[in-house]
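ok so i was messing around last nite and threw this chain in just to see what happens. nothing serious, just curious
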Amino acid sequence: MLKTKLFVFILLINTIAAFSQATIKGQITDANNLPLEGASVILKAKTNLFTLTNSNGTFEIKKVPHDTYTLTISHLGYKTIIEDLIISENLTKNYVLKPDLLNLHTVVVTGNFTPKPQIKTSTSISTLNTNALKQVVPQGTANLLQNIPGTFADASAGEVFTRVYTRGISAAAEDDLGWYYVSLQEDGLPVSLVQHSYYGSDLFHRADITTQKVEALRGGNASITAMNAPGGIYNFISKKHSQTLSGEIQAQTGIQGDGNPIYRTDAFITSCFGDNWFFTAGGHYRHNEGARNTDFTFSKGGQFKFSLLKENSRGYFKLYGKYLNDKTNRYNGVAATNWNDPTPAFGFDFNTTTLMMPEFQANIPDGRNLNTTNSFDPSQGAHAKDLAVGFDFQQNLGNNWSVKNNIKFSFKEANWQTSISNAFVSISDPTVYYLVSNGNPFPVGQLVFKDTKTGNELATINNGGIFAGTGSQYISGSLPNDAVMGTSTWYKDNDANEIMQQLNFRKEFTTHDLNFGLASGFSDTSVFTQGSFAFSTYENNPRMLQVTLENPEDPVIALSDEYGVSNYGGLFFTNSRADISQIAVFANDHWQISKTLLLDLGLRFESIKHKGSNDMFEPYTSTGGLDGDETTAYDNNILQPTGERNTFNFTYNYLSYSGGLNYKLNEDAALFGRFSKGHKAPELNYYFNNFSNVPVNAEGEIQDITQIELGLKTSLKDFSFTTTLFWSELKNIGSTNFEFDSDNGSIFYTPIQNNTSRTIGLEWESVYSPINILAFRFNGVLQNPKASKWTVYDAAGTVDTSDDSTTNYSGNQLAFNPKLMFNLSAEFNKNKFSSFIKWQYMGKREGNVANAFQLDPYSTFNAGIGYKISKNLSANLLASNVFNSEGLANFFGANTFGANANGATQEYIDANPDASFVVVPILPRATMLQLNYVF
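result:
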C-alpha cells in the first residue's frame, strides 16, 4: 500500500507540473505584414526564456511555467515591444513591430557598461544594422565605416593600411598608424592591443556575414570604456544563436576597376542542441584580383569563427574563437602634376595605375643571421594570421548583483613582402647610383639595364656626366620616362601573443546602476624590418631591372641580383621586441535623478607599461661583401646587429573621467550632454621609429583629449534624427617626419615636435520615411579643424643638424580633415523588390599643415537593387563609385625618394611649379552580384 500511495503521489505531482506549464507561440511581422526573421523573444521572470523567430517570422517557447512574465520583443531597426503577461494557459500572440528608423530604441552595448536603449544614453553613437551592411561592396573595414556619420575613413590603400578617425582627433593617424586613437573591436574586446608602423588592428579584421551589426561610438566616454582609445570605438558584433537550425549562405562575384574579377563565399549556421546548448559557426573565403591593375592576385584567404554557448537560469557561458589566414596588399600613390588641379603624370591613370613591383621570387640575406635568407615575393603582400580563443560569461549573483567577464587569447603573425615608396628617380640623379650600396663603391661609367624576365637589354647609360653637371647619357636604348622607380623591398615580420579581458561587476539599486571592474591586456610582441633598394622601370606595370656596370677593360660589376634587388638589407633595419601591459580599473554610475533625468558619471585609471629593446646595427663591410666577390656590389652593405641593445622601460599612468546627462523629453525624444577628459599613451612606433640606432633617452608624451558635446535624439513616426554639437582639443601631439639624406644614403625621423589641434563641429544623422516603402537618409559632419599650436621641424634634407630649423604653422587648418562630409541616400522596399542609391561627399582637405596644397572635394555614388526570388533565395546587385570618380584621398608630397607631405611648402611649390608629386586616389568602380540562401 505504501508503494502504491507513493507512486500515485509522484504521478499526481508530475501531472500537476505538466498542467502548470504552457506553450506561447506567434508571429512577428513588420508594417508591410512581412515576416521578421531573427526577432528576439524573451520571457523574463524568475528564469529567462529566449528564442528567435524563424524565416516565417514565427516563434514558439514550450514548457513555460505558469507565472507572471515580462515579454520583450526586439529586432534591430524596429521599436522594442515590452509587455507584461500572466501565463496560465497556452497562448498565441502576434505582434507588429514599428520601424525604429535610427535604431534609437535598440539596446546598445558599446561605450556603456550597462546595455541601454540608444535614446537613453548620453553618448554619440550610431548603428549599422544587417540591412545597412548588405548595401556595402566588401572592400574592407574602413570602406564600410565610411557610412557612419562623423567618421573620416580612408580606404584608398585597400583593405589594410587604412585610416579612421573622428572629430579632428587625427594627427598621429595620418601616416602608417591609421587607427591610432580609436579601438577596433569584435564583440567588445579589441582586435589587437598594440600598434606600430605597418602593424594595426585592420590587419587582423575582416567583416563578413557573421557580423550582425556595427556600433560606432564617437569620442565621449570612449575615454573610460576603451583601452587607450579616447577617439572612439567601432565594435563589430557577431550574429546570435538560434533555437532552431538556421543560417545563410552567400555567393558573390563581381568586377573592379579595369575588369578585375573578385569571387567570394560567406556562410553562417546556428542551432540549439541538448539542454540549452547553442552553437554558431561561419566565415568567408575570397579571391580578389584587386581594384587596380597588378600582375598578381591582390587578395586571397578568409576566416572561420565559432561560438558554443550554454544558458542557465542565471545567465550564460560562452566559448568562442576565430582563425584568420589572409593575404592582401596595399596600394601606393600615383604621380600627378599641376598643383592647383592634379592630373595624372607620366601616362598614369588614377583609376588603374599601381606603381608596385611585379611578382618575383628572390632570397635576400637575413640581417639577423647572415647565414640564412628571407624569401621575398611582392605578390605575397601582407600575410596575416590570427588564432583567437575566448571565454565570456555573465551570471546573476542575487540581490541585484551580477558579474560579466570576457577574456580572449590571441596569437598573431603578420608578414609583409611588398614595396615601399614609388618615387620618380631620374637616371641623372646620383641617388639611384648611391643606393646600390650606399656608395660602397659608387658605380661610374657604362650601366646596362636588362628586363629580368626576358633578359632583353632596355638601355645602356653612361652616368659619368652627373658630376660634371651634364647628367647621364644614353649609349643605346632608353628607359621609360628616363627614370627608375625609387622603391625598396619592404620585408617585415611581426608576432604578438596577447591576453585581454574585461571584468565587470554590476549592482542595481532603486535609482542607481553601479558598474565597476578591471580591464587588462598583455602582449608579447616583436618586429623585424629589412629594406633593400630595387631597380624597376617607372611606368604602368613596372618591370624589374637587372643592372650591371660594364666599363671597357674592367670586370663586369653586378649592381643588382638577377631579380633586380640591390643593396641587400642596406636601407632599413629594425629588430625590436616589447612586452606591453595595460591595466585599468573603472567605476561608472547611472543615477536616475528623476523620471526624466539620468546622470552618468565614470572614472578610469589606466597604467600602461612598455618594456623592450631595439638592436643596434651596423653595415657588413668585408671586402667583396657577404659573398666575398668584388664583382657583386649588391651585398656590400647589409645592416646587421652589433650585439648591443638599446632598452626602454616606461610606465604611463593617467586618470580619465567622463560625465553625461540625459534628459527625457518624452518616450521618443531626449537631450544629452557630456564632458570627457581622456588621454592617449604612445604606441610602440615611438620607440621603434624615433630611436633607430640611438639610445631611447626619454619616454613619450601622453596626449590629452578634452571633449564637450551636446545633442538631441528624436524618433518620430516617419522622421528620426540625432544631432550633436561638439568641441574637441588634442594636446601633446608628437609630430615627426620621415626623411632621406641623399648625401650619405641614411633614412631618419626628425626630432619630435609637440603640437595642439582643436576642432568644433556639428554631427547629424537623420531618416525620413514618408511611406512605409520609401526612406531618405542623411548624415554627416560640419566642422572647423584647426592646428592651434603647430611647428614642423625642417632637417634641410640632411642628418646634419647645423642647418636645421623649425617653422610655425599655428592657426592653420588641420591637415587631412574636411570641413564637410556627408552621406545622402534613398531606399525603396516593396514586396520582393528593393533598391537604394547613395551619394557620399568628401569635402576639401588640406594636404599638409602648411596649407600649401589642397585635396579637392569629390563625390561618389553607390547603388544597388535586390529581388527576393523565393522565401529562401534572394539576389542583389551592388555597385560602388558608380561613375568612377577620380577623387584624391591622400597626399605624400614631392615625387622624390624620401619626401613627405610637410615638405611641400608654398615656397617649394612656387619654386617648382612643374614638379610632379604623389597623391593617392580613391578606389575605382566595383560591382558585385550576390546570391543569398537563407534557411
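not much to say yet. The CA atoms of residues 668 and 716 lie 7 Å apart.
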